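=== Structural record ===
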Amino acid sequence: MFSVIERYISREIFQTLMGVLVVLLLIFVSNRLVRYLADAASGDIPSEIIFTLLGLKAIKYFIFVVPLAMFLAVLLSLGRMYRDSEMAALASCGVGVGKIYKTVLIIAIPGMILLAWISLKVVPLTAQIEYKIIQNAEEDLEVTGISAGRFRETSGGKRIIYVESVSKDKTSTKNVFIHAKINKRSVVFSAAVGRIETNEIGERLLILEDGYRYDGEPGKADYRMTRYKEHAFKLVSKLRNDKDLKQDAIPTSVLWNSKKPQEIAELQWRISLPIFYFLLALSAIPIGRVNPRKGRYGKLIFAMLFYIMYFILLNTSKVLLGQNTLSPYVGLWWVHIVMFGSSLLLLSKQLGFKWVFNPSSRFR
Protein backbone atom coordinates (compact mmCIF):
# COMPACT_ATOMS: atom_id res chain seq x y z
CA MET A 1 0.00 0.00 0.00
CA PHE A 2 1.05 3.55 -0.70
CA SER A 3 1.57 5.97 2.14
CA VAL A 4 -0.41 9.19 2.47
CA ILE A 5 2.58 11.22 1.29
CA GLU A 6 3.07 9.05 -1.79
CA ARG A 7 -0.62 9.32 -2.70
CA TYR A 8 -0.54 13.08 -2.23
CA ILE A 9 2.54 13.65 -4.39
CA SER A 10 1.39 11.23 -7.09
CA ARG A 11 -2.04 12.91 -7.19
CA GLU A 12 -0.42 16.32 -7.62
CA ILE A 13 1.79 15.06 -10.45
CA PHE A 14 -1.02 13.14 -12.15
CA GLN A 15 -3.44 16.07 -12.10
CA THR A 16 -0.80 18.38 -13.54
CA LEU A 17 0.11 15.75 -16.12
CA MET A 18 -3.49 15.50 -17.34
CA GLY A 19 -3.83 19.27 -17.55
CA VAL A 20 -0.59 19.79 -19.44
CA LEU A 21 -1.29 16.82 -21.73
CA VAL A 22 -4.72 18.12 -22.71
CA VAL A 23 -3.39 21.61 -23.41
CA LEU A 24 -0.47 20.35 -25.53
CA LEU A 25 -2.67 17.94 -27.49
CA LEU A 26 -5.19 20.70 -28.17
CA ILE A 27 -2.41 22.94 -29.48
CA PHE A 28 -0.99 20.30 -31.83
CA VAL A 29 -4.37 18.96 -32.96
CA SER A 30 -5.79 22.45 -33.52
CA ASN A 31 -2.81 23.37 -35.66
CA ARG A 32 -3.24 20.20 -37.72
CA LEU A 33 -7.00 20.83 -38.03
CA VAL A 34 -6.36 24.27 -39.52
CA ARG A 35 -4.02 22.72 -42.08
CA TYR A 36 -6.54 20.01 -42.98
CA LEU A 37 -9.30 22.60 -43.36
CA ALA A 38 -7.06 24.64 -45.67
CA ASP A 39 -6.29 21.52 -47.73
CA ALA A 40 -9.99 20.68 -47.94
CA ALA A 41 -10.87 24.24 -48.95
CA SER A 42 -8.30 24.12 -51.75
CA GLY A 43 -9.59 20.71 -52.85
CA ASP A 44 -6.46 18.75 -51.95
CA ILE A 45 -8.34 16.34 -49.66
CA PRO A 46 -12.04 15.47 -49.35
CA SER A 47 -13.71 17.17 -46.39
CA GLU A 48 -15.29 13.94 -45.14
CA ILE A 49 -11.95 12.41 -44.11
CA ILE A 50 -10.70 15.39 -42.07
CA PHE A 51 -11.72 14.15 -38.63
CA THR A 52 -10.63 10.58 -39.37
CA LEU A 53 -7.18 11.83 -40.27
CA LEU A 54 -7.22 14.13 -37.26
CA GLY A 55 -7.91 11.24 -34.89
CA LEU A 56 -5.12 9.15 -36.40
CA LYS A 57 -2.74 12.09 -36.26
CA ALA A 58 -3.63 12.70 -32.59
CA ILE A 59 -2.36 9.20 -31.73
CA LYS A 60 0.98 10.00 -33.40
CA TYR A 61 1.16 13.31 -31.55
CA PHE A 62 0.42 11.54 -28.25
CA ILE A 63 3.76 9.71 -28.12
CA PHE A 64 5.63 12.99 -28.65
CA VAL A 65 3.52 15.06 -26.25
CA VAL A 66 3.45 12.65 -23.29
CA PRO A 67 7.21 12.86 -22.50
CA LEU A 68 7.08 16.66 -22.44
CA ALA A 69 3.84 16.64 -20.44
CA MET A 70 5.34 14.28 -17.84
CA PHE A 71 8.51 16.34 -17.64
CA LEU A 72 6.56 19.55 -17.06
CA ALA A 73 4.14 17.86 -14.65
CA VAL A 74 6.93 16.68 -12.32
CA LEU A 75 8.74 19.98 -12.70
CA LEU A 76 5.70 22.17 -11.94
CA SER A 77 4.36 19.96 -9.15
CA LEU A 78 7.67 19.83 -7.28
CA GLY A 79 8.26 23.52 -7.99
CA ARG A 80 4.96 24.39 -6.31
CA MET A 81 5.79 22.21 -3.33
CA TYR A 82 9.20 23.86 -2.95
CA ARG A 83 7.61 27.32 -3.27
CA ASP A 84 5.03 26.54 -0.57
CA SER A 85 7.75 25.02 1.66
CA GLU A 86 6.01 21.65 1.57
CA MET A 87 9.23 19.92 0.57
CA ALA A 88 11.01 21.47 3.55
CA ALA A 89 8.26 20.17 5.82
CA LEU A 90 8.46 16.70 4.29
CA ALA A 91 12.26 16.68 4.66
CA SER A 92 11.92 17.57 8.34
CA CYS A 93 9.65 14.53 8.71
CA GLY A 94 12.29 12.25 7.23
CA VAL A 95 10.99 12.15 3.65
CA GLY A 96 14.06 12.15 1.40
CA VAL A 97 14.69 12.24 -2.32
CA GLY A 98 14.29 8.47 -2.53
CA LYS A 99 10.63 8.77 -1.55
CA ILE A 100 10.12 11.39 -4.28
CA TYR A 101 11.72 9.10 -6.86
CA LYS A 102 9.58 6.19 -5.71
CA THR A 103 6.43 8.30 -6.10
CA VAL A 104 7.41 9.48 -9.58
CA LEU A 105 8.18 5.90 -10.61
CA ILE A 106 4.64 4.89 -9.63
CA ILE A 107 3.42 7.05 -12.52
CA ALA A 108 6.43 6.81 -14.84
CA ILE A 109 6.72 3.02 -15.13
CA PRO A 110 3.11 2.31 -16.21
CA GLY A 111 3.32 5.31 -18.52
CA MET A 112 6.52 3.97 -20.08
CA ILE A 113 4.92 0.56 -20.68
CA LEU A 114 1.86 2.18 -22.28
CA LEU A 115 4.03 4.44 -24.43
CA ALA A 116 6.16 1.48 -25.56
CA TRP A 117 3.04 -0.39 -26.67
CA ILE A 118 1.71 2.64 -28.55
CA SER A 119 5.07 3.38 -30.14
CA LEU A 120 5.83 -0.19 -31.23
CA LYS A 121 2.35 -1.44 -32.12
CA VAL A 122 -0.32 1.24 -32.37
CA VAL A 123 1.48 4.05 -34.21
CA PRO A 124 2.68 1.89 -37.17
CA LEU A 125 -0.86 0.57 -37.53
CA THR A 126 -2.41 4.04 -37.46
CA ALA A 127 0.21 5.25 -39.95
CA GLN A 128 -0.76 2.45 -42.33
CA ILE A 129 -4.44 3.38 -42.01
CA GLU A 130 -3.66 7.07 -42.47
CA TYR A 131 -1.61 6.53 -45.64
CA LYS A 132 -4.24 4.16 -47.02
CA ILE A 133 -6.97 6.75 -46.48
CA ILE A 134 -4.85 9.46 -48.09
CA GLN A 135 -3.98 7.16 -50.98
CA ASN A 136 -7.63 6.32 -51.60
CA ALA A 137 -8.52 9.99 -51.35
CA GLU A 138 -5.86 10.87 -53.91
CA GLU A 139 -7.14 8.15 -56.22
CA ASP A 140 -10.70 9.43 -55.96
CA LEU A 141 -9.88 13.11 -55.77
CA GLU A 142 -10.40 13.88 -59.41
CA VAL A 143 -14.00 12.73 -59.05
CA THR A 144 -14.94 12.90 -55.36
CA GLY A 145 -13.16 16.22 -55.01
CA ILE A 146 -15.18 17.78 -57.83
CA SER A 147 -18.22 19.84 -56.99
CA ALA A 148 -20.87 20.46 -59.59
CA GLY A 149 -20.58 23.85 -61.20
CA ARG A 150 -16.98 24.51 -60.08
CA PHE A 151 -13.67 24.46 -61.92
CA ARG A 152 -10.94 22.35 -60.32
CA GLU A 153 -7.23 22.06 -61.06
CA THR A 154 -5.59 18.63 -60.96
CA SER A 155 -2.23 17.10 -61.92
CA GLY A 156 -0.33 20.10 -60.61
CA GLY A 157 -2.36 22.59 -62.62
CA LYS A 158 -1.88 20.76 -65.93
CA ARG A 159 -5.53 19.76 -66.02
CA ILE A 160 -8.72 21.73 -65.32
CA ILE A 161 -11.99 19.85 -64.87
CA TYR A 162 -15.54 21.19 -64.81
CA VAL A 163 -18.71 19.11 -64.47
CA GLU A 164 -22.32 20.18 -64.51
CA SER A 165 -23.56 17.47 -62.14
CA VAL A 166 -22.20 14.55 -60.09
CA SER A 167 -24.05 11.37 -59.13
CA LYS A 168 -24.75 10.63 -55.46
CA ASP A 169 -22.19 7.82 -55.36
CA LYS A 170 -19.68 10.14 -57.12
CA THR A 171 -18.76 7.55 -59.70
CA SER A 172 -20.26 9.31 -62.73
CA THR A 173 -20.71 12.86 -64.00
CA LYS A 174 -22.65 14.65 -66.69
CA ASN A 175 -21.56 17.34 -69.12
CA VAL A 176 -17.82 17.19 -68.49
CA PHE A 177 -15.31 19.83 -69.61
CA ILE A 178 -11.56 19.17 -69.39
CA HIS A 179 -8.69 21.42 -70.40
CA ALA A 180 -5.32 19.69 -70.47
CA LYS A 181 -1.74 20.18 -71.63
CA ILE A 182 -0.63 17.26 -73.80
CA ASN A 183 2.85 17.45 -75.34
CA LYS A 184 2.82 21.21 -74.68
CA ARG A 185 -0.38 21.58 -76.71
CA SER A 186 -3.66 22.89 -75.40
CA VAL A 187 -6.35 20.22 -75.66
CA VAL A 188 -10.00 20.55 -74.66
CA PHE A 189 -12.35 17.62 -74.09
CA SER A 190 -16.10 17.80 -73.71
CA ALA A 191 -18.41 14.88 -73.05
CA ALA A 192 -22.00 14.26 -72.16
CA VAL A 193 -21.14 11.55 -69.60
CA GLY A 194 -18.07 10.56 -67.56
CA ARG A 195 -17.51 7.46 -65.43
CA ILE A 196 -14.70 5.93 -63.32
CA GLU A 197 -13.27 2.47 -63.95
CA THR A 198 -10.29 0.49 -62.66
CA ASN A 199 -8.39 -1.70 -65.09
CA GLU A 200 -6.80 -5.07 -64.44
CA ILE A 201 -3.46 -3.61 -63.28
CA GLY A 202 -5.04 -1.24 -60.75
CA GLU A 203 -4.99 1.98 -62.77
CA ARG A 204 -8.01 4.24 -62.38
CA LEU A 205 -9.45 5.68 -65.56
CA LEU A 206 -11.92 8.45 -66.32
CA ILE A 207 -13.97 7.31 -69.30
CA LEU A 208 -15.61 10.10 -71.33
CA GLU A 209 -18.54 9.14 -73.53
CA ASP A 210 -20.03 10.80 -76.58
CA GLY A 211 -17.84 13.89 -76.74
CA TYR A 212 -15.45 16.08 -78.70
CA ARG A 213 -11.73 16.74 -78.60
CA TYR A 214 -10.40 20.15 -79.61
CA ASP A 215 -6.66 20.03 -80.26
CA GLY A 216 -4.61 23.22 -80.73
CA GLU A 217 -5.63 26.86 -80.96
CA PRO A 218 -8.60 27.97 -83.09
CA GLY A 219 -7.56 29.81 -86.27
CA LYS A 220 -4.26 27.96 -86.73
CA ALA A 221 -3.59 25.46 -89.48
CA ASP A 222 -2.99 22.53 -87.11
CA TYR A 223 -6.24 23.01 -85.19
CA ARG A 224 -8.30 19.81 -85.11
CA MET A 225 -11.74 18.83 -83.82
CA THR A 226 -12.43 15.14 -83.32
CA ARG A 227 -15.61 13.43 -82.22
CA TYR A 228 -15.24 10.25 -80.16
CA LYS A 229 -17.49 7.59 -78.72
CA GLU A 230 -15.21 6.95 -75.71
CA HIS A 231 -12.00 8.55 -74.48
CA ALA A 232 -10.02 7.43 -71.42
CA PHE A 233 -7.93 9.51 -69.00
CA LYS A 234 -5.54 7.82 -66.58
CA LEU A 235 -6.18 9.46 -63.23
CA VAL A 236 -3.54 7.81 -61.01
CA SER A 237 -0.88 5.16 -61.25
CA LYS A 238 -1.57 1.63 -60.07
CA LEU A 239 -2.14 1.10 -56.37
CA ARG A 240 0.88 1.23 -54.09
CA ASN A 241 1.95 -2.06 -52.54
CA ASP A 242 3.27 -2.77 -49.05
CA LYS A 243 6.89 -2.34 -50.20
CA ASP A 244 6.17 1.35 -50.76
CA LEU A 245 5.16 1.99 -47.15
CA LYS A 246 6.79 4.92 -45.42
CA GLN A 247 9.19 4.22 -42.57
CA ASP A 248 6.75 5.02 -39.77
CA ALA A 249 4.14 2.65 -41.24
CA ILE A 250 6.40 -0.42 -41.40
CA PRO A 251 5.41 -2.97 -38.72
CA THR A 252 7.90 -3.28 -35.88
CA SER A 253 8.19 -7.04 -36.45
CA VAL A 254 9.57 -6.29 -39.92
CA LEU A 255 12.05 -3.74 -38.57
CA TRP A 256 13.55 -6.21 -36.09
CA ASN A 257 15.04 -8.30 -38.90
CA SER A 258 15.96 -5.44 -41.22
CA LYS A 259 19.55 -4.54 -42.09
CA LYS A 260 18.70 -1.26 -43.83
CA PRO A 261 20.11 1.78 -42.00
CA GLN A 262 16.88 3.78 -42.29
CA GLU A 263 14.78 0.96 -40.88
CA ILE A 264 17.27 0.35 -38.07
CA ALA A 265 17.04 4.05 -37.24
CA GLU A 266 13.24 3.84 -37.23
CA LEU A 267 13.31 0.85 -34.87
CA GLN A 268 15.70 2.53 -32.45
CA TRP A 269 13.57 5.68 -32.56
CA ARG A 270 10.44 3.73 -31.56
CA ILE A 271 12.29 2.08 -28.69
CA SER A 272 13.82 5.41 -27.65
CA LEU A 273 10.51 7.22 -27.13
CA PRO A 274 9.49 5.35 -23.93
CA ILE A 275 13.10 5.63 -22.67
CA PHE A 276 12.96 9.35 -23.47
CA TYR A 277 9.77 9.62 -21.40
CA PHE A 278 11.20 7.70 -18.47
CA LEU A 279 14.52 9.57 -18.26
CA LEU A 280 12.78 12.95 -18.57
CA ALA A 281 10.56 12.07 -15.62
CA LEU A 282 13.61 11.16 -13.50
CA SER A 283 15.57 14.22 -14.66
CA ALA A 284 12.75 16.54 -13.65
CA ILE A 285 13.22 15.69 -9.96
CA PRO A 286 16.65 17.32 -9.45
CA ILE A 287 15.83 20.06 -11.97
CA GLY A 288 12.55 20.78 -10.17
CA ARG A 289 14.28 21.71 -6.92
CA VAL A 290 14.03 25.50 -6.67
CA ASN A 291 14.59 28.19 -4.10
CA PRO A 292 11.19 29.15 -2.61
CA ARG A 293 12.02 32.80 -3.19
CA LYS A 294 12.31 32.22 -6.94
CA GLY A 295 8.89 30.59 -7.31
CA ARG A 296 7.85 27.41 -9.06
CA TYR A 297 9.13 28.59 -12.46
CA GLY A 298 12.64 29.33 -11.27
CA LYS A 299 14.31 26.65 -13.43
CA LEU A 300 11.80 26.43 -16.25
CA ILE A 301 14.15 27.92 -18.84
CA PHE A 302 16.93 25.52 -17.91
CA ALA A 303 14.45 22.63 -17.97
CA MET A 304 13.21 23.50 -21.46
CA LEU A 305 16.80 23.79 -22.73
CA PHE A 306 17.49 20.34 -21.24
CA TYR A 307 14.42 18.90 -23.02
CA ILE A 308 15.21 20.59 -26.36
CA MET A 309 18.83 19.42 -26.29
CA TYR A 310 17.74 15.85 -25.51
CA PHE A 311 15.17 15.83 -28.34
CA ILE A 312 17.53 17.41 -30.88
CA LEU A 313 20.29 14.92 -30.09
CA LEU A 314 17.87 12.03 -30.58
CA ASN A 315 16.66 13.42 -33.92
CA THR A 316 20.19 14.13 -35.13
CA SER A 317 21.35 10.64 -34.19
CA LYS A 318 18.36 9.14 -36.00
CA VAL A 319 19.24 11.04 -39.18
CA LEU A 320 22.92 10.07 -38.98
CA LEU A 321 22.01 6.45 -38.31
CA GLY A 322 19.63 6.45 -41.28
CA GLN A 323 22.41 7.80 -43.48
CA ASN A 324 24.71 5.00 -42.29
CA THR A 325 27.04 7.62 -40.81
CA LEU A 326 26.55 6.36 -37.27
CA SER A 327 27.10 2.78 -36.15
CA PRO A 328 23.92 0.91 -35.12
CA TYR A 329 25.72 -0.17 -31.94
CA VAL A 330 26.08 3.50 -31.00
CA GLY A 331 22.82 4.60 -32.57
CA LEU A 332 20.51 6.55 -30.31
CA TRP A 333 21.69 4.76 -27.17
CA TRP A 334 24.58 7.14 -26.49
CA VAL A 335 22.12 10.03 -26.10
CA HIS A 336 20.21 8.20 -23.36
CA ILE A 337 23.44 7.30 -21.58
CA VAL A 338 24.64 10.92 -21.66
CA MET A 339 21.30 12.24 -20.41
CA PHE A 340 21.11 9.64 -17.66
CA GLY A 341 24.60 10.65 -16.57
CA SER A 342 23.50 14.31 -16.61
CA SER A 343 20.58 13.43 -14.33
CA LEU A 344 22.93 11.70 -11.89
CA LEU A 345 25.19 14.74 -11.98
CA LEU A 346 22.27 17.05 -11.16
CA LEU A 347 21.21 14.74 -8.33
CA SER A 348 24.77 14.68 -6.98
CA LYS A 349 24.81 18.46 -7.00
CA GLN A 350 21.54 18.48 -5.04
CA LEU A 351 22.55 15.91 -2.40
CA GLY A 352 26.27 16.50 -2.41
CA PHE A 353 28.81 14.23 -4.04
CA LYS A 354 29.35 12.30 -0.79
CA TRP A 355 26.03 10.50 -1.33
CA VAL A 356 27.65 8.53 -4.19
CA PHE A 357 29.83 6.70 -1.66
CA ASN A 358 27.08 6.43 0.96
CA PRO A 359 23.72 6.72 -0.83
CA SER A 360 21.65 5.29 2.04
CA SER A 361 22.53 8.28 4.17
CA ARG A 362 20.52 10.80 2.15
CA PHE A 363 18.76 8.84 -0.57
CA ARG A 364 15.79 7.52 1.39
